């Protein structure tokens, strides 16, 4: 079941069936630098939480697949952070797929979904300091810095985009 798609990408809900892939994705030191690495047990627990969020909220994180081949190249989606009382748009790609515009394309599709059918009033993007690639994606999509915060003891900048500020034609 695909919940979001674009010209080149399809997004489907992540599940515990993605555990081995999740561990491999996050094992790359450049990917894990900002999103951490996972043991198999940690990945299963995280994915169970994602499945629960899909059940409770009707949205969550997705696997990003190339439409042409079905290859899973990353993850993106909407994640509810209870401690912040916010829905975040997030994106993480395997390093081999950086620099092709996939993060922006996937995130734009996620925003269209969040502001369209889900009717969210605002969506945040939490970006760790030094993650210049994700900051550039957020700017391209129209996000603006909202506040400084921290997650799991690491500083980050929370960016925000409102439904009224979202433009589907933004490149």
TrEMBL record:
Q: Which domain of life is it from?
A: Bacteria
Question: Where does the N-acetyltransferase domain lie?
Answer: 9-157
Where exactly are the transmembrane stretches of this chain?
none
InterPro entries assigned to the protein according to its UniProt record, in alphabetical order: Acyl_CoA_acyltransferase, GNAT_dom, N-acetyltransferase
Q: What is this protein called?
A: GNAT family N-acetyltransferase
Q: In the record, what lineage is assigned to the organism producing the protein?
A: Bacteria, Bacillati, Actinomycetota, Actinomycetes, Kitasatosporales
């Amino acid at each position: 079941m695909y919940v979001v798609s674009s010209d080149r990408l399809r997004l489907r809900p992540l599940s515990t069936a993605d555990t081995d892939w999740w561990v491999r994705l996050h094992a790359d030191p450049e990917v894990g630098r900002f999103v951490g690495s996972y043991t198999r047990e940690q990945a299963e627990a995280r994915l169970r939480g994602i499945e629960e969020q899909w059940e409770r909220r009707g949205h969550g994180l997705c696997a990003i697949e190339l439409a042409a081949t079905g290859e899973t190249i990353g993850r993106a989606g909407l994640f509810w952070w209870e401690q912040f009382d916010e829905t975040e748009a997030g994106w993480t790609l395997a390093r081999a797929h950086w620099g092709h515009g996939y993060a922006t394309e996937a995130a734009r599709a996620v925003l269209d979904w969040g502001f369209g059918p889900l009717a969210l009033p605002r969506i945040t993007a939490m970006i760790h300091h030094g993650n210049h690639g994700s900051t550039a994606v957020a700017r391209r999509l129209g996000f603006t810095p909202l506040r400084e915060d921290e997650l799991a003891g690491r500083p980050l900048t929370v960016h925000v985009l409102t439904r009224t500020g979202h433009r589907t034609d933004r490149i």
